[in-house]
Amino acid sequence: MLTFNDLIVAFETLGLQKKPVIAHASLRSFGFIEGGADSVVTGLNHTLGAFIMPTHTYKTMVTPASGPANNAINYARGQQWNRLSEPFYTDMPADPMMGVIPESMRHWPEFQRSMHPILSFGGFRAEKILQTQTLENPFAPLRALVESDGWILLLGVDQTANTSLHFAEKLAGRRQFIRWALTENGTVTCPGFPGCSAGFQAIEPEVRPFTKTIKVGNATVQALPLRALLIRAIEIIKKDKYALLCNRSDCERCAEVRKM
Ligand SMILES: [Zn+2]
Fold this sequence. Notes:
There is one protein chain. The protein has one domain. Helix content is 31%, strand content 19%. It has 10 helices and 10 strands. It has a 7-stranded mixed sheet with strand order 4-5-2-1-6-10-9, sandwiched between helices. It has a 3-stranded antiparallel sheet with strand order 3-7-8, with no helix packed on it. α1 (4-13) runs parallel beside α2. Zinc ion binds next to α10. Zinc ion is lined by residues 196, 198, 245-246, 248, 251, 253-254.
């Protein structure tokens, strides 16, 4: 059984004291932790400087009847899901795909969240980082993080959870998409929507030389400097325009990137 003290020791072993960090986590991967998700948040909060996690909300998404071509979206088929969409509001729970830890963070008094209706981030001591996000530039917080020599923390998840690789794709000139979201002020257009992350694990051997890895309970915990990850990922994508794409035959976004 792990306690939050074990987590603090682990995060300190990775050398992340007072560092700005974007974290991605699977609570289940650790095995049993006394106090559950709250203990992970306490451990992160005690150790790190500014830290953020994705608090994305996909249920705000709507599909217009028509829109730009080559957008990896079937406008006709998308109509049937529109009735399930909900307008974004600041306290909207993060999508279950984000895991339970961002949800636990949301209930802390010092929690702050950016305002993107699909691709929000939330965190502690990260007001300036979160404020950089705009509808046009959903990954601006990652630029702010790299400018502060930030780190990526993968807690029991692999590179397919690493949002920073989407930012690398954008910086490498890879195709971005347009999506739409419901808000309290109506439907808004959200450019800069990323591709698919299902093929991202292929980068693991490339970033291993500068990845710090430890075991915490049953979980593999990895820390990577964001700048080094971006540089390596951009090199790889520029060298091979199909790099980090997935192999699913029905993946519309990867198919669209391949067509480009
Ligand atoms: Zn794909």
